[in-house]
Specification:
The chain is an alpha/beta fold and 302 residues long. The chain has 10 helices and 13 strands. A 6-stranded mixed sheet has the order 5-6-7-3-8-9, with helices on both faces. A 4-stranded antiparallel sheet has the order 11-12-10-13, covered by helices on one side. It is globular, with a radius of gyration of 23 Å.
Length: 302
């Protein structure tokens, strides 16, 4: 499988601060990769290394087999940085036409604007767009050159729910057509909805790398939910929550816990046993109180 982007032990430091710490990562063709991490984790710096905006302090970075700082290596790349300024007097179609002029076979402007819900705004000056419309425009132009790889840094920040889902649909269509995507997001449900591979990064290091199921499985406890009146003290319960007659219990051995419930003869119903959600796994992997576990499980996941 062709590797479109790669970092090998890549480190980027700013004085005493290490933003990316010996990260090795391959992005194969056709994959939709979600990059998760708290603020300051190193996600944006990692994308800047891949786009050639920053050079590694040590280690290597490759884009389409070359140096991402070379223009030739970036011809098959589309990207949307976290912050983008638009000339306020340019009209929407002028922005798209200007970017499209750098490519041999761009997506027609009308088609691109329709894909990203911007039809009807062609002659609107960008200074008169709402924040959400501006964000959709800067994401749209990342796709105008029919790139093989798109890097999206917080693409749906500032969008309402409807606009966010419309953008998800556009990203899915691109991916289903064979495109490769790396996206960062603060919205865990966004990564769950889109990504087939999840990389969790914290303090500049990769803590986990795998499928959604792989990352969820790094949290050993299982969640047991049920409805019942007061419950007796149960062995093996690590923590519990209650809302009326609804109980949520966390345990390392859900089978043993269910057997206990049966033997206590407490009437219960609506029993559900589930692995950790992506949010729960993310919090466990990036919580300061769980860094030792995160380091161990991150190595295991890789």
């Amino acid at each position: 499988m062709e590797i479109l982007a790669r970092t090998v032990a890549a480190t980027r430091s700013y004085g005493p601060v290490t933003a990316v710490d010996a990260v090795s990562l391959d992005v194969p063709a056709g994959q939709l990769l979600g990059l998760l991490g708290p603020n300051g984790a190193g996600k944006t710096t990692l994308l800047q290394l891949l786009t050639g905006l920053r050079r590694p302090t040590s280690g290597t970075v490759e884009l389409f087999g070359g140096d991402p700082r070379d223009a030739a290596s970036r011809r098959r790349l589309g990207c949307t940085p976290q912050e983008t300024g638009l000339p306020p007097t340019l009209r929407v179609h002028e922005v798209v036409d200007f970017v499209a002029g750098h490519f041999d076979s761009p997506v027609p402007t009308a088609e691109l604007l329709e894909q990203f819900g911007l039809t009807g705004l062609e002659r609107r000056q960008t200074g008169g767009l709402s924040g959400g419309q501006k964000r959709r425009l800067v994401v749209a132009v990342a796709f105008v050159g029919r790139p093989d790889l798109v890097l999206l840094d917080e693409p749906t920040t500032g969008l309402d729910v409807e606009a966010r889902h419309a953008l998800w649909d556009a990203v899915r269509r691109y991916h289903q057509g064979g495109g490769t995507v790396v996206l960062t997001s603060h919205y865990l449900e966004e990564v769950e909805a889109l990504a087939e591979r999840v990389v969790v990064i914290d303090q500049g290091r990769v803590r986990a790398d795998g499928t959604l199921a792989d990352v969820r499985s790094l949290v050993p406890a299982r969640r047991v939910q049920l409805r019942a009146p007061d419950l007796p003290e149960l062995a093996g319960v690590e923590r519990s929550l209650r809302d009326g007659d609804r109980h949520e219990l966390w345990t390392a051995d859900s089978d043993a816990l269910v057997r206990q419930l049966v033997t206590t003869k407490v009437p219960f119903r609506d029993l559900e046993v589930a692995t950790a959600s992506l949010e729960e796994a993310f919090l466990a992997l990036t919580s300061p109180s769980n860094q030792s576990m995160a380091r161990t499980t991150g190595e295991t996941a890789r």
